[in-house]
Amino acid sequence: MSQVFEQQCRERILAAAAGAPLLLRGGGSKDFYGRPVQGDIVDTRSHRGVVAYEPTELVVTVKAGTPLAELEAVLAEKGQYLAFEPPHFGPDATVGGMVAAGLSGPRRAQAGAVRDFVLGVRLMDGQGQVLNFGGQVMKNVAGYDVPRLLAGSLGQLGLLLEVSLKVLPRPVAEATIRLETSQAKALALMNQWGGKPLPISATVWSDAGHPDGEAITVRLSGARAAVAAAQAALGGTLVEAGIASAFWAGVREQTHPFFAGAGGANEPALWRLAVPSTAPQLDLPGRTLVEWGGAQRWLVSDAEPRRIRETAEKAGGHATLFRGPAAARDQAFHPLASPLLDIHRRLKATFDPRGVFAAGRLYEGL
Amino acid sequence: MGDRLPDSPDFAVDQAALLAALGRILPPGRVYGEPEDLRPYECDGLTAYRNLPLAVALPETEAEVQAILQLCHRLQVPVVPRGAATGLSGGAMPHHQGLLLSLAKFKKILKVDPVARTALVQPGVRNLAVSEAAAPYNLYYAPDPSSQIACTIGGNVSENSGGVHCLKYGLTVHNVLQVRGYTMAGEPVTFGSAALDAPGFDLLALLNGSEGMLAVITEVLVKLTPKPQVAKVVLAYFDSVTKAGNAVAEVIAAGIIPAGLEMMDKPATHAVEPYVKAGYDLDAEAVLLCESDGTPEEVEEEIAAMRAVLEKSGATSLRVSANEAERLRFWAGRKAAFPAVGRITPDYLCMDGTIPRKRVAEMLTAIAAMEKKYGLRCANVFHAGDGNLHPLIMYDANQPGELERATAFGAEILELSVALGGSITGEHGVGVEKITQMCAQFTPEELARFEGIKQSFDPAGLLNPGKAIPTPARCREYRQTRGEQA
């Protein structure tokens, strides 16, 4: 099956003519993300299944078209999980799409991002060549770290065929607490807690105007004793486990009420601002939800994109138009400085010299 | 002496002209061109490979770095960046037709931000100095290579250094937020950001482990980690390396991620014990060091779980560190393994293969057979939690043929690492040492992409040429030789 899929892909890549590029796609659950692009779809979903999984090695290798939910179920059976809690954004999300989109969930500040867990890739480049980089081991510095480069590359460099990921045991205990507080106070608290050896695995501050009120929600994960001790130290109100689990799923999948009414037609856009965790409350109109100990700020706003970008940049970070109308998404990502853009162009030419893979998802012409 | 970089293209550099031009950028005393001044720079930690550069430059400012790179770019002079030169693969070995660019004077800690939990440091700052500067805030820099007293952050980024705690706390790539520097053409570049990510491709991931071939680093923003309240280590002794290897898998299977999980075989403990007097049991065939850190409650819970698993896995005896002094003494043995072996043999080669954990016993059995085959002894220390093995092959360079035998021994270990599903290097880098084995791990097409990545950052091919990526000719020759053997 794998050979048939790879052969078909190779034929399509070799046959792809200039001006009729291929669009690499899993379940399409993240089609909304990035610049709008056109192309003949290469659907990876027939290329699925776990290739190798040994829980004691903490590594799983899967074909790129494997549904993310299926992989998570396989890991859960062995008490393990993807610690970066990738968002699915729909039932059809695939593992390849997860890596290509490079998005991480609530646990990112503590556990790391997708790129931190990608150990190896099997890739088909723009000349139809199958290439293996990295591997199934934790430590590997033979050659440049191409697997991590591919995390977040949005299909611009090649077709992911297989990925090897580091997995971790699920925390033994978890508890969620909530403290009512303003955003400024919440940012101070998040940074203060971050400097202490507390088992915090996720933080969210969200504003008034939805059922949670203006409050900081903190998830503690780890050994039972550590969670209990931290819970006592932080105070606040304990959130019932079922409600807590629904809350974190809502933040991860953007079904939380904060995200309603944003990013659609005739709605204000949803922006993602990545800033240093210590950046003060940003002076921007709209609604805000803070994650990652202060390092990720979601903004629902119809402010001028330029103003939002300048504010993020001044704070030491960058802004992404995460969900919005297609026209506005033409500049979804923060502009790059010129030497970096040149490096991006040359990397694209290295992996896809004929421009077979639909360009422009990240930046125009790239 | 002379050309030890057969994978580099040939450069025609006028040494006198280069020195004269460097003299216009740097004051006297920070440019060297006389052989006696160049000699101290002829190698890094891999002392078996040496080369004299045409010149050595020691800039102090970013403007000087930029001017030097612009000059070398214009004159087509290869440049090899160097930190503390503790690297073990020859990554900082000079180019015989080039400039050795020492970043040793970039040793300022620019800022420690206890609230953001970051440190902004120059590349010549020593790894341990970062943790020392962060200590008053109960923070530290997590990656702790054994050379941490001497090695620098710039070198750590270039090699993506690990250490004994990376299973839980990650490698350098997981602990660096932003790198600033210059391309070979002298353009200023920033990779990553003070936020948790940056727009575009993850170029920061490429910089980590790039062996000084993509850009010259002048500033690094690292992540600091809160110091755990308590740490304890369990010493577990085994009467066979196979049992010890299986115990490692059992610990992980029990859902435990130890803060450190290290293994030493009998020859290694025998080398170490007289040197550091850690109190290791010298009758055991293997010892595991299994560390837990966190809150006192957490550590107690985890140590109990570790003990249960290790006992069940057949440990002949267990010892838990009673206090911090004892914990440090237990670790001192492991951290001093390289110098300790250096005491009992005139020379040694340190290998760095990585394999899936379950293949450990198989690998150690094979190494024992190779000891007989090559007539050389080998001690094994092992980052067991990461599957990263450091066989120390002992030889005497003054005995004719021993270096060649040791090199062949090492090559066989690395090739077996690849065959067992691993890698030729886990944390030491390829450099010049393992450039031939790159042909075993990668196809010509994959190696061509590495070359393409290199050219994306350095189209002129002047930054540390001839390292890490073998030429197609070398690999053709390698495959031919292997084919004949098979």
TrEMBL record, chain A:
It holds the Pfam family FAD_binding_4. InterPro entries: FAD-bd_PCMH, FAD-bd_PCMH-like_sf, FAD-bd_PCMH_sub2, FAD-linked_Oxase-like_C, Oxid_FAD_bind_N. Residues 1-170 form the FAD-binding PCMH-type domain. The keyword Phosphoprotein does not apply. Keywords: FAD, Flavoprotein. PROSITE patterns: FAD_PCMH (PS51387). PANTHER family: D-LACTATE DEHYDROGENASE, GLYCOLATE OXIDASE SUBUNIT GLCE. NCBIfam families: PRK11282.1 (NF008439). This is Glycolate oxidase FAD binding subunit. It comes from Azospira oryzae. The lineage of its organism: Bacteria, Pseudomonadati, Pseudomonadota, Betaproteobacteria, Rhodocyclales.
From TrEMBL, chain B:
Pfam families: FAD-oxidase_C, FAD_binding_4. Residues 49-227 form the FAD-binding PCMH-type domain. InterPro entries: FAD-bd_oxidored_4_C, FAD-bd_PCMH, FAD-bd_PCMH-like_sf, FAD-bd_PCMH_sub2, FAD-linked_Oxase-like_C, FAD-linked_OxidoTrans_Type4, Oxid_FAD_bind_N, Vanillyl_alc_oxidase_C-sub2. The keyword Oxidoreductase applies. Signal peptide: none annotated. Keywords: FAD, Flavoprotein, Oxidoreductase. The keyword Cytoplasm does not apply. Its cofactor is FAD. This is Glycolate oxidase. The lineage of its organism: Bacteria, Pseudomonadati, Pseudomonadota, Betaproteobacteria, Rhodocyclales.
